[in-house]
Every structure is written in structure tokens, then in C-alpha cells.
């Protein structure tokens, strides 16, 4: 078991982290290149930068979602708080990341980590139930979306049990291995799934705005493609 744990926290973790970071960089760079290419082709290159910034801020901050869908918005807020803070600041994780973190990096103690774990689990459970039970959300969801939520649930739950071996349904070392493998898998799928919004979200409003600035002669070319170039608008 110790050999498997060493493998999971050593080579597998480094490979998974590299895939995650390189994949996110590729996805972000691709989106930025598409925005630049669309801007070059656009007939009207003027952009309402302040409007785009305001719209981006509204999407990044949860207030709009909390107002329109209070329960889902609160669940999303709690889930994101836990899933972002725990990997970066829990003292056990900081030890794992120690080689690349500065010595002043903040650390969450056991009590705060437990609280954020409870909040993340509660938020994940509400989001998963909403995806499964609410028809509007179910129609927009795929099996992979539920799979990602289940993976994150397993990651958070196994982390809690690994930190509290007396409550664990499995042997402590086994649960630790499960947690490490789930974490590595989550890193790998991050740039390949909807989790990629962690780097693409700031670009979505700009991408949408640029997309509406059609290249010159777009209307005429569409009319030709539809064989309606001689029909009045």
C-alpha cells in the first residue's frame, strides 16, 4: 500500500498536474487566439470595453445567480469556496505542494478545513440533485456532467475520511490512496471538461461580444450561400 501511495503522491501527481496546467494553458491560449482572429476579421472593431468588463464581473460574481436561483446560487458558492480553498490551503495539501510554494503560504487548520469540506459536500449534493431532478437542468446536462460532480463528491468525501480515519469506512491508508487517485483524476479531467471554465470564464463575455461584430460583407455572403442574394431584406 505504501508503494501505491508513494506512486500516487509522486510521479502520478506530477504527471496529472502537468496535464492540468498545460491543458488549461492550451485552452486559454486557443480561446484568446480565436478572439484575436475574430477581431481581425470583424468589420466593426470597436468594442464597448466597459460594458464587457461589467458583464464579466456580473458573471464572475455570484450575486446575479443568488438573486435568480437562490438555492442553486448558494450551493454553487459553497461548492466553489470549498473546492478552491481546500486544495490550495489545507495544511496537508500545502505539505504536498511545498516544493513550489513560498514559506509564507497560508494554511487552513483542521477546524476550518472540516467546515469548508462540509460546505463543499452540501453544495455538491444540491447541484447534483438539481441536475438530476429539475427538468430544465436535466435537459441541458450530459452523463459526463454528473460524472464530474460524482468525482468531486468522492474527492471531498475521501479527503474528509482520510483526515478522520476513525470515521472512515475503509482502512486509513486505503482511503488516503483513494483520495490521491481521485485528486489526480480530477486534475487530468479539468482541461477536458466543464471545469475548464475556471480559466475560460473571464473570456466568455468578450468572446460573445466579438462574435457579434461580423466581418465586412458577411450579410452578402450569407445571402449568396442561401441563394437569396436578389431578394430584398
Termini separation comes to: 72 Å
Strand content: under 5%
The averaged pLDDT comes out at 79
Order of helices and strands: HHHHHHHHHHHH
Rough shape?
Answer: elongated
Summarize this structure briefly.
By secondary structure, the chain is mainly alpha-helical. The protein contains twelve helices and no strands.
Describe this structure in words.
With 233 residues, this protein is mainly α. The chain has a domain at 67-213. 76% of the residues lie in helices and 0% in strands. The chain is built from twelve helices and no strands. α3 packs antiparallel against α11 (197-211). The chain starts with a helix and ends in an 8-residue tail after the last helix. The mean pLDDT is 79.
Name the descriptors.
mainly alpha, 233 residues, elongated, 12 helices
Topology:
Layout: H1 2-9, H2 11-41, H3 49-60, H4 63-68, H5 70-89, H6 91-97, H7 110-133, H8 135-140, H9 143-163, H10 172-189, H11 197-211, H12 218-225
Helix pairs in contact: 1-2, 1-10, 2-10, 2-11, 3-11, 5-6, 5-7, 7-9, 9-10
Amino acid at each position: 500500500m505504501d508503494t501505491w501511495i508513494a506512486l500516487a503522491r509522486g510521479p502520478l501527481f506530477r504527471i496529472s498536474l502537468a496535464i492540468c496546467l498545460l491543458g488549461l494553458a492550451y485552452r486559454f491560449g486557443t480561446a484568446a487566439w480565436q478572439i484575436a482572429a475574430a477581431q481581425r476579421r470583424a468589420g466593426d472593431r470597436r468594442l464597448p470595453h466597459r460594458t464587457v468588463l461589467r458583464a464579466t464581473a456580473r458573471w464572475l460574481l455570484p450575486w446575479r445567480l443568488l438573486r435568480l436561483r437562490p438555492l442553486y446560487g448558494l450551493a454553487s458558492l459553497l461548492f466553489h469556496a470549498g473546492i478552491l480553498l481546500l486544495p490550495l490551503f489545507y495544511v496537508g495539501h500545502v505539505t504536498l505542494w511545498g516544493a513550489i510554494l513560498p514559506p509564507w503560504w497560508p494554511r487552513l487548520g483542521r477546524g476550518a478545513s472540516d467546515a469548508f469540506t462540509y460546505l463543499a459536500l452540501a453544495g455538491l449534493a444540491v447541484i447534483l440533485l438539481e441536475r438530476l431532478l429539475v427538468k430544465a437542468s436535466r435537459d441541458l446536462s450530459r452523463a459526463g456532467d454528473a460524472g464530474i460532480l460524482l468525482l468531486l463528491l468522492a474527492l471531498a468525501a475521501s479527503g474528509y475520511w482520510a483526515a478522520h480515519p476513525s470515521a472512515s469506512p475503509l482502512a486509513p491508508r486505503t482511503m488516503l490512496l483513494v483520495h490521491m487517485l481521485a485528486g489526480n483524476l480530477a486534475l487530468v479531467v479539468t482541461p477536458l471538461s466543464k471545469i475548464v471554465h475556471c480559466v475560460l470564464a473571464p473570456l466568455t463575455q468578450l468572446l460573445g461580444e466579438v462574435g457579434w461584430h461580423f466581418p465586412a460583407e458577411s450579410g452578402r455572403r450569407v445571402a449568396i450561400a442561401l441563394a437569396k442574394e436578389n431578394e430584398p431584406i
